[in-house]
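Review box. Two proteins, two foldings.
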Amino acid sequence: MRRARHVEVQILGDSQGNLVHLYERDCSVQRRNQKVVERAPAPYLDGRQRVELCEAALKLARAAQYENAGTVEFLMDMETASFYFIEVNPRVQVEHTVTEVVTGIDIVKAQIRIAGGAPIGTPGSDVPKQADIPLNGHAIQCRITTEDPANNFIPDYGRITAYRGANGFGIRLDGGTAFSGAQITRHYDSLLEKVTAWAPTPQEAIARMDRALREFRIRGVATNLTFLESVIGHPKFIGCAYTTRFIDETPELFARQERRDRATKVLGFVGDVMINGNPEVAGLKRPVVAHLPDLPPVPPIEPPAGTKQILDRLGAEGLAKWMGEQKRVLVTDTTFRDAHQSLIATRMRTYDLAAAAPAYARLLPGLFSVECWGGATFDVAMRFLKEDPWERLRAFRTAMPNLLLQMLLRSANAVGYTNYPDNVVKHFVAQAAENGVDVFRVFDSLNWVDNMHVAIEAVRESGKVCEAAICYTGDIFDAARPKYDLKYYVSMARQLEKAGAHILGIKDMAGLAKPRAIAALVKALKQEVGLPIHFHTHDTSGLSAASVLAAVDAGVDAVDAAMDAMSGLTSQPPLGSICAALSGHERDPGLDQGTLNAISRYWEGVRALYAPFEADIKSGTAEVYLHEMPGGQYTNLRAQARSLGVEQHWDQVAQAYADVNRMFGDVVKVTPTSKVVGDMALMMVTSNLTPADVLDPHKEIAFPESVVSFFKGDLGQPTGGFPAALQKKVLGEAKAIQVRPGAVLPPADLDLVRAEAEKKAGRKLSDAELASYLMYPKVFTDFAHHQRQYGDVSALPTDVFFWGMQPGQEIAIDLEKGKSLIVRFLAASEADEDGERKVFFELNGQPRTVKVADRKVAPARAARPKAEAGNADHVGAPMPGLVVSVAVHAGQVVEKGDLMVAIEAMKMETAIRADRAGTIASVTVTPGTQVEAKDLLVVMA
């Protein structure tokens, strides 16, 4: 029989010769002859077949004068529809419950009463006569076990840390071993629970069972829940086209994604923060927040049309033309990116940023753009905030569908700190455009236009807006520094227009453009180029609002500003104040002052949460005209100085920064060249080096790696070239490149890099995630491992992410729309002999415990080593269990398939065999060793 079904008939017989059947069950879905899913009745039988089958079972039972409960089992040939007898099981079977549901007869009780002498068909037996036995609807039973489908169905064991069963109309549970805290041992059966779903039709029964399986939450041990979902959801199961070999012949059943267990993972992170602290706030004091941030009421309307719709309608060139036709000055809000990057070291989380986005979309549709992505936010999101920057971008795109989203792109450096191959830059730009970026502000850290061409072309190819930026440094009216005069900037602007820019940006990253200078520059550019001009500055001097107003009077088309509560100091000038100053002016931006004030109050509350990250700067300072540090670097460099113990000598750091700039040839200072200057300045202060020491060709100095890379030409060529003598000292015998770095970098093999990245991450990656890996291989790999361990922690409230929870505190964690966790922290235990502490929570009203290794406590017993993921020489335990035999020893030569170790669990012995020929380097276990999954067993040479 090539295509067989397994069908069985439930029978009951008494001592008086009465015999009835309770109809049939389909038991075809099985593995190794062990049933997995049962159905009653068999949905593929017609009335004639059902009568024929049940009568055959009764005929056989009558001949044997059968008494009590039993099961008569048959195989059905799918080709001929013929039935063939297999055996009789003279007992109540596991699957009896599915029959009880469709007949309403309690088979266990009936068997007891019949055994006591009650005749079938009388009230005392609880079994009606055959004609009165109903067949009501359809039922499906699934066996929930600890057998792990991803691990060859090897039974798992351990403690159930969380259990929640399914319930509701039409759902029956039979079990007893499954509850929170239950210890599943390797000495007993792997069955946890039987769940039976009833409904009037087969299709509805399947849907009800699917809902029940998805409702189950069993944590702490592996289960077959998602495998069961795959089985009952497969077209062959739904269409009754399956046989007894269904599981063996359907590999896609095993491809289903495992449950994410997001609650346990995120609670593990919260517990770890409370026990060990978040390293990002080590040594910082928890802020005292008077009240949580509060947004103004947002009307329940669709966002009004804005600049995003103009771009979609007119295209990039059309948008640029539209900008030039506007009488009002256009405004970009930088709060979502540069403001917090400059004020609080880029530490603002998506949780607080995304919360404000719907208000922007509905209350500020008149904004030109929202600068919300790129720059340092990209790597900081992964490195420190444990967030996916692409998810952040997509969240902004969804919440602000009417506003242009703007990013900062470091041309050939993309969002990194080095140059990348051209195809890597193109791949990144394509992903950014696809995921939501509309306006790319492209700049080069040396104002070298040759280095910007690839990025400009990539943006244009994406159909988005390219705002090519001139980085402003020095002072166009300073005769002592003629390098960066008005002619220099006009010449660069013409090159950018020729390169294909849609908008011309003026990026005053340190806030050096004084009112008179910016007015002269804007007027000159308006006369010499035909592009709209967008002015960006910082307020380190306290003078930048005046510069913005001067630029407006000079005819600038758009300006950058930050919400008042996130403005000033190293950030941008205050948006609300600028709009108030222009109220009634012919170039009034037209933004509602009340709305700006209300949204600013929200940011005021948010900023208080991040107070520990702020630099101790109380006011603007003219010192910026000395050191010329970019606003985004200023706070970071002060933090670095603090960590190196030289913050009290900040005046020396500032002077050294200015000295390094002069020694290096008066360079444009913006990421990553600003890092080069900053690294050297800190080195000089901490090493007591003077400019004369640095320039002395006979004094040996170990220059920072960033400095060596800079003089080698890895970032490009500065205007006027490198100081020859210093370059020779820095490079020694190494040769510098004099061409565009991307021109000598071979294209990255994206397929090869993807394979490498996926191996390190342990999963498939999207094109956007590949871009993350291309930018920051180690940072992304570490982030992917954090995700695997703790899941998505971006939904945690900010104070909990950084500082954990207080006893009795209750929070809501919105995992996604319609899925929230209500979490209350109860208590934490002392460390056990393994150095672990239990953290007790209440999750959605149910107790939930997570174990956290206390890194301040040395465990009484050392943990067993784990097999390294991806290390082919490491042989790990495929399951928890007891080592019952070890067949190899160090130095032994083995062939592929040779037995190495045998492990026993759940009455099942598993042999671990060599997957290749080789030599045994070491064996880490002995017979009798208790091991956990992935514990290291054998190391091969």
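Next protein.
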Amino acid sequence: MYKTENYGIFLGLLTMPFGQEKDFIKYEIENLFEQYKENVRNNLNQTVSKNTEFSRYLYRPRPYCLFGSFDLAVISLVDDFGLATRHFHPFSPLVSDKLKADKEKGKTDYSSSNYTFHVISGLAPDLRYIDSKESKLLERARQTFLNSRTKDYPFIGITSLKVNNALLIGGGGDTVDIILQEVQSVLSEAELKDNTSLNYCIFHSLSWHELTIVFFSNSYEVIAEQVFALRKLTLKDTKPRGSHSETRKKIYDDCKRDSLLYHFLESEKIANSSERAEAAHLFVHTHTIFGYDLNILFDDRRFDKTLDKKLNFQMNWDIKPGHLSAFRRALEAKIASSPEYKFLKNGRITAGRGDYTYTITQNAMEGFRKLIKVIIGEKNEKYPLKQHIRQLNTVPEFTRKFPDSQKEVTALSNQYPFHDYLHRFQFKLEEIESVRSTLKRLRVSKVVREKVSNMYTIYNDGISDKILYGYFIELKPFLEMIREMLKSWIEKADDEALPVFVLSNSLDAIAQNFETAYQNRFGQSYIMNEITDHNLKFNGGIQQLVTAYDGAYKSLTALLGERFIKIKRDMGLSIAYVSGFPNIESDILSVRLNYFHLYQPEFFAAAATHEAANFFFERWYDTMDEKPELENIARLLKDDSIPPFVKSTIQYFFSDTASFHLTYADDFKLFFYWHWCSIIQIDALYRQDGNIYQPFLDHFILRMRLIAHYTSNQDILNNMISPPFGCDQDIFVDVWDEVMDNSQRNFEELEENYGEYLKQCYDLVLGFLVMDFAYHDKENFFSYIQETIKKDSPFTKEIDDYHDNQKFDFFTHEEENQAYTYVCYARQIYLRNIASEIIKSFKKGELYNFDHWRGHLPLTYSKDQEAFFFQALSLAYLKLVQELCGNKAQLLKRTHSSNCVDVDTTNVSLWFDPLGGVFTTKLETRKLYYKYRVIFLKSLWNLSMKRKRALFGLEGRWKR
């Protein structure tokens, strides 16, 4: 399983202005990184020695010039996601102070300018986990991009590798692991000739592709050979050979058997399905950008004229409209002025990407350097060529003939192109026409009608993409549910018919959510390789993160009602999407996240179950007649005569109860801690002047009182509630007594007037837990539980009493209350035990292997084991981060102008910011926090990818 390094890799691609390269790099790159690093230092409550790894190696950007649409690559070791996703962009505020000061002192005339940029955030796997002879990431970095010597590795190649979705889906992280092992094996065994060199850094991206490799060499052909070697790999190549362990062989067999491709071949009854799956190529897309050390361009002393003598360069110049004649006259004058520019005579006018093309043959690198100097011109040159050129695009051409392999040609006949069958997962024309027809019957306006119809057409485009279809399949259940919803609106009785404006507003909101979700999956993909990051909310691609959160949330919504509605999708219908709103919010078919939830996932882990439970009653609406207790609560929530405060509190209580049992394993202290840490970052808690908005706090404490009362935790709550919860802020003390009085009074009124509904809500959750945990083989469930954990349980006698009277009605379980209590206790034990094992793995920097629990009773009884694993994963992670916080919810102090107050006097190492996010104040905590986040995100992604196969209508991983 995956093991992480302590640091990640930042990779930024960008353009830069001709003739201002040195100033651009100094102010826009080096200054940006140094200011970010200084901000980190300022947040630490310790003096950072110059000898620490942080001081010596982190946030030290190494720029490389690039061929192609981007001019520069910037590589750095990092220990956080903030620089890449929030600060690396033109006109960054981190740049302005240094630049302004130097301009005032007359040190520069450079002014900030716009530039195109592209960000890749990388999580670094520990290659020593694969091969003990491998170097750690820091050592490789010191050998390559942290090494100032140009001659060792003057050239780089940046290769993005997209794993074949048909192999990845179902296998998840295990598939990536065996591929990573093979990639590392290929590269480490590369045969080098003619004094050539090769080094590399491999990391996992969070974007549309799973792997990125940065090659370092003194020959482009060596890099190209390795890329071609990787491109031809098939699944069979990863098959363990010789003396490999039985564990690795089993992982390989599981990855093949669990893959989407294998299950598709089996379902289609295709002959030799195993061999055909093994013949599938590992990668469906690779994209390589070549570059060179910046010193080559500016320092003649560091340039070796013998570099890649046989390499050719094809250079395309995009000349500004109307400048072509002036450009040619200036160029001819240059050629006439010096014999060394005679090679420029072979330029030609072309159509297409560039207006003017050169091919430089023999000693191309030397010719390229001369050409750049010609373009830039002399320092005081009045009319340099650069004024005529809009863009320069250079592509290396390899003259060496790479050997053909008859074996590869023959192997192609065994392959089965799964992507040729993607049309099966599209919406048919008649289905889309049916949506349009239904919208017409509902009298929805043309504008809204077209918007809703277009959701289906652009989904069809996404699912047809042979590289990205694995991300768009997540949207299909959502669209299926919209069709069902439209049908239900048509079927309403006349007296229940909704006003058209209500329908239009609902559909407009749905379409906006879908559009954002689609853009999350489409943006910064391979289609947009040369287009700048243009997202207002974050930088870089987030496809794998969205998949991770989407899979987790679908498992919870399926558990909490979605599997029971008309289209009966056990995998869940809701979608996750990322936008720029500050809080986690949900509607019946989606959950909205923001940047902090992506990269500080404790807030998602803390709130996801609550959000998934919010619409439980609406999802069950069609079966109300069969469930009287459910009908009672649902009708109360829809009754206009009931005060909104009462309805919202009862709804919150149900969602809180579900979260208390499902995510927090009945741990009230942990439940209270993370709900408190979450609300102190919600803008609804504060007034514009920075003080507390008391009604919000009143309601929060009321919610905690209700949970404490119904879970017998009143004493714990009373002992915990004293301002300000380890949160050293006077603003809470000022309102606290009144908050406590209000919440107690509201609690008593609710209990007196609506206690029966609150009790029904609580019983519903308990019954629901039993139904989920004991879904299969109910007759033997209790006896099995009794045998396996009776030593840990105080409820053995109750199980014996009810052994012969096993009734599992979801909503009516009063007669078996003791047995239900026992089952909930059993579930709690398993959840906590698995979470404890996960914590041990996380502390070692390793993914937890959930395969250990596959087929393990009583999990085999569960309807959706992945949902149970997501809950255990969240429980473990929340405990780990709480431990990092020292069990305190330390709120970052800010002045009225929102500046941070000095935090050097505290021993707390993790702070919660009222404006959003978490601050670390110790280097060791910062390192652990990054490691835990990386492992949690990879674990979440791993489970989601294994679970995703069922979205294609094929049985899920855990249901063999």
